Amino acid sequence: MHIxxxxxxxxxSAIFIALGIGMLVGFNLNYDQELSRQQAAIIDDLxxxxxDIKTTNNELKGKLNNKESxxxxxxxxxxxxxxxxxxxxxxxxxxxxxxxxxxxxxxxDVSKTITDANGSVAFDITLKENLSNKDKxxxxxxxxxxxxxxxxxxxxxxxxxxxxxxxxxxxxxxEKLDMIKINHLSDNHxxxxxxxxxxGDTKESSNKFVNIDKVIIDRLKEDxxxxxxxxxxxxxxxxxxxxxxxxxxxxNNSQQGTGKLSLVYTLRDSVEKGNFGxxxxxxxxxxxx
Length: 289
Description:
It is a single chain. The chain is an alpha/beta fold. 54% of the residues lie in helices and 12% in strands. The chain has helices spanning 5-86, 107-116, 134-144, 151-161, 167-176, 209-222, 240-245, 257-269, and strands spanning 94-99, 120-127, 180-185, 194-198, 226-230, 250-251, 275-276. The chain has a seven-stranded mixed sheet with strand order 3-2-1-4-5-6-7, sandwiched between helices. The longest helix is centred in the first third of the chain and has 82 residues, at 5-86. It is elongated. The mean pLDDT is 86. InterPro entries: MctB. It comes from Paraclostridium ghonii.
């Protein structure tokens, strides 16, 4: 029987294809086995590294717990002994205090901290909400023959008054109109060199910074006065971030012992910058040289 040449070619081709498939399958089987061995080795290595990391993590956790315990002991010590630590630290300092929120007025506490450190309080003034009342401003203009237009003008009048010997006389009309509260005004108020801005609010929001706080800051800087901003740790609204932008040192826990230490040490050394107190957005508990 005559066998067509094409039959041989097809048959031979089929044989080679079958051989090729067999070799490929065999190769893949070997490859899969090698891959499995490699994967097993990687998993074993990862398990070993995980155990090392777990051990290291437990060691670090133990050290962190010890540090946190030491930190709490330090804070408690400072809170309990701040009175001894601030004694005589503000000798010769004459400090003014301005509260920008009448419903969050804690200036008496700030004033006591300053005097406990043997410093002097030049003035202690609380700005009230009526400071921005247009009818009150009209009454003030009528009583003192002024031409004030808004709260910015009123603030400038207050700051100018503090540069005069008859400051009490100039400011009493504002107190009568319930625009400010004069908690204290000393005879040597002209010699003040530093000012504590008592900020914060019990409300959830406030828009007073631009029209009130910022105006005071700019005037004090023009006059070369040193400024520090404070608030209590229970403030619902804070302007401290705005003070930070003006490169003013801040304290966010003025009612606590560490906050009182920060206030005194910051005033004592005229610390140029720094955010002190508790929480995440602070540089340290208190200023450290």
